[in-house]
Design brief:
It comes from Ilumatobacter fluminis. This protein has 247 residues and is of the alpha+beta class. It has 3 helices and 15 strands.
Length: 247
């Protein structure tokens, strides 16, 4: 009886091992992990995710980026059997904060069971200021906005200085254009990022004040009065000449 039970145990173990080997031969444990950055570019100080696909469920992903070190566990569907336990197709994700200076930055993520190290890259774009009206009228208002993930941002423009609180990753300030035509410049500061901007104030046509209900200018009115007066004097002189001749 003992020999029979031992034989059954050996046969069962051999069958399971054979199944595992067959699963490996069929490629169930062969994975091809990839890494992607979302979004692929961000503003200084912005956040982004590094996503690993097709990792082995349960393995550890170790991320390294600009002095930031993080770990994440590859997750996926629960395994029901030995063959499913070695199936890949899991995912791992970690979030990072981008540097505050524009440029291209690299990092790596190492997978312990897959025994691979995957490089990734993030583009940090220089922050630019967006103005609602680049050619405002003298003394009119306009807005200036900059991508900003800090608690506050400061804008300086034509003697005006404001501190604003960013909302949804954007800092916006309402500014007043100079009263004289020309180009005026300013700066928007968010953390270590300083971005310049400018607007060109439009020239306005001179306003000629009205001189009366007729719309006639003062000079033309004076000329008309003089013309009438001259005509009257000429008529009087002609009348007197006729009277003198008749006498």
């Amino acid at each position: 009886m003992k020999r029979l039970m031992a034989g059954i145990a050996i046969a069962t173990a051999a069958t399971m091992a054979g199944g595992a080997v067959q699963a490996q031969d069929n490629g169930y444990n062969v994975n091809d992990p990839t890494v992607a950055v979302a979004p692929p570019s961000t503003t200084p100080g912005g956040t982004f995710n590094v996503n690993v696909d097709d990792c082995i469920v349960g393995e550890t992903a170790t991320y390294t980026f600009q002095g930031q070190n993080k770990t994440a566990t590859c997750v996926g569907a629960s395994a029901d059997s030995l063959t499913e336990a070695i199936v890949a197709g899991g995912t791992a994700t970690a979030s990072f904060t981008a540097p505050t200076s524009a440029g291209t930055y690299n990092g790596t993520v190492a997978l312990d069971q897959s025994a691979v190290s995957l490089p990734f890259q993030i583009q940090v774009q220089a922050a630019t200021v967006t103005v609602s009206n680049g050619s405002p009228a003298p003394g009119s208002t306009f807005t200036a906005s900059i991508p900003c993930n800090e608690d506050s941002a400061t804008v300086s423009f034509n003697g005006q200085s404001q501190t604003v609180s960013p909302s949804d990753g954007t800092a916006t300030a309402t500014l007043t254009a100079p009263t004289a035509a020309g180009t005026a410049t300013g700066t928007f500061t968010c953390g270590d990022t300083v971005a310049s901007f400018s607007v060109t104030v439009q020239e306005t046509d001179p306003i000629i004040p009205p001189t009366g209900n007729s719309g006639m200018s003062g000079t033309m009115g004076i000329a008309a009065v003089l013309l009438v007066a001259g005509a009257g004097m000429f008529g009087v002189s002609q009348f007197r000449r006729r009277q003198t001749t008749a006498s």
